Amino acid sequence: MDQLIEKKMEDLREDEFLINMGPQHPSTHGVLRLMLKMDGEFVRDLTPYVGYLHRSIEKIAENRTYNQFTPFTDRIDYCASMPSNQAWAVAVEKLAGIEVPERAEYLRVIMTELNRIASHLIYLGVMSLDLGAVTPFLYTFREREKVLDLFEMTCGQRLTYNYIRIGGVSRDIPSQFGKYCFEFTKDFRKKLDDYEAILTENPIFLGRTKGVGVLPLDIAKNYGASGPTIRGSNYAWDIRKAEPYSVYGKLNFEIPTGKNGDTWDRYIVRMEEMRQSCNLIDEALGGIPQSDVIKTKLPVVLKPPKGEVFSRIEAPRGEMGYYIVSNGDKKPYRVKIRTASYGNLQVLAPISVGWKIADLVAIFGSLDVILPEVDR
Amino acid sequence: MTKEEITERLQDKFGSSIEVAETNQPEPYIYVAPERYHELCQFLYRDPELDFDFLFQLGGVHYPDERSALGRTAPAPPEADAGRFEVVLCLSSHEKIHCMVVKVKLDKDNPEVVTTSDIWQAANWYEREAMELFGIKFTGHPDPRPLLLYDDWEYGFPMRRGWTGPDFIPMPEK
């Protein structure tokens, strides 16, 4: 018997093997295929395959007028639909020199920050679900329901709003919005403390995320990472502070950063950002000017002047921006969409080499990549 | 640095190989000749005053003839200047907080330019996308596989103007 085992052990090989973390996988947050070259449990190399959700939005944009394209921008990142709308509106307004009324700017800030909270709640729920904690998932989606109620009250939609239009917003907030929103932010700060109590100092969570997947700053900058991914590496870079757009220049908020650039730091950055968003919403709601004008008067078919524009905003996942070429026509000539997750996903390959496959799930969850943004 | 300062610094170094586009945008838009494209990108990355360390995006644009670039109301273009591809880089700097746009004009029939993925690693995926959607070749690219289209795609380069493929129904003109 021992001789039989010894003989079998001679044939045993320790090679690298390929594992396919296929497009359908509960932890890849969408249709992402990862080809992993494994040495036992450790990842030696990683190749992402994307394109399963390519809907050729850039080609569609060449056949739609500027206003007809706004609903498509919702679907680029459906978890953060308001900032996606705003990125398009800001770009076209920069191209055509359109001024947005002040009440509309405040409304845009309120809606974008509410959507930032909703998006980070999805991140929190899904990441803790990936690590095995099921309870925060249900709690965060319960909070998110309140945000979606606010959105439904305003524009009738829960997920893809088509609310921030070129030149302003589509409709004003109803009279009971302010009361519900203040109640929500007051309640939400307490709930955030509860969620931190479950996760932040939890030894299991710390063991799985502290020191895991450290992202050095020069790799983050060179590979095009932005948003909380780069802020976790102790770098306070935020478009809302660096190149303020809308009324962010007038509002008070801070940019949270992490210290080491590991998975735990990126989690802490997003938790803090939710608190800062609550502050921004309270301040904007308190200071919103009373006015009837929520949208500039624009021609029904908008024809911006001939030229090009490049603009960007801070979406919840990072920097999102547009490069639009216009030739004076009613339809854009070329629209190039740059999304946050495109850069963040490229960072996955360098930082997850050498970690186990379970750590890969944690690292990927912390990058908060959403595949429709990558594939467009 | 302001738009004028950036353009002055680049014109000092590169002289006639670059052309400044007239725009009313706050960022400088620079056209560069394809031969000095890689050198310009390295200078933009390494120069301590300019310090463009972040490649925001890299995209291709297709102008099948000069008329489409000028618009329908423009007069008919001269015959000699007919069509080109362009590669557009949007760059930004984290420390200096300024942005610029670099554009390269490429040949209509054989668009080819050097890769910049050795300077900014972010260019890797953008160039793969431009390669498969426009057909622009980036020489020296470490990994020229298609990114977004599926493996047995055989219907040409979809983002080119005037492309038709199976199941492509153009919008009716109203």
What this model shows, in words?
The complex is a heterodimer of chains A (376) and B (174). By secondary structure, chain A is an alpha+beta fold. Chain A is 49% helix and 12% strand. Chain A is globular, with a radius of gyration of 22 Å. By secondary structure, chain B is an alpha/beta fold. Chain B has a domain of 109 residues: Beta Polymerase, domain 2. In chain B, strand 1 and strand 2 form a beta hairpin. About 6% of the residues of chain B have low confidence. Classes of the chains: A alpha+beta (376), B alpha/beta (174). Chains A and B meet through helix 9, strand 6, strand 7, strand 8 and helix 13 of A and strand 3 and helix 3 of B.
Brief rundown of the structure:
The complex is a heterodimer of chains A (376) and B (174). Chain A is of the alpha+beta class and 376 residues long.
Oligomer: heterodimer
Fraction of residues in H or I helices of chain A: 40-55%
User: What is the mean pLDDT of chain A?
Assistant: 89
Rounded to an integer in angstroms, the radius of gyration calculated over CA atoms of chain B is 17 Å
Biggest sheet character of chain B: 5 strands, mixed
> What is the CATH superfamily classification of one domain in chain B?
NADH:ubiquinone oxidoreductase Nqo5 subunit
CATH class value of one domain in chain B: Alpha Beta
Q: What best-fitting shape of chain A do the alpha-carbon axes yield?
A: globular
CATH topology of chain A: Cytochrome-c3 Hydrogenase, chain B
CATH architectural grouping of one domain in chain B: 2-Layer Sandwich
- Catalogue the unreliable spans of chain A: none
- What fraction strand of chain B? 15-25%
Number of helices of chain A: 16
| CATH homologous superfamily identity of chain A | Cytochrome-c3 Hydrogenase, chain B
> What structural category characterises the helix and strand content of chain B?
alpha/beta
* Contiguous helical run count of chain B: 4
Q: In order across it, which strands form the biggest sheet of chain B?
A: 1-2-5-4-3
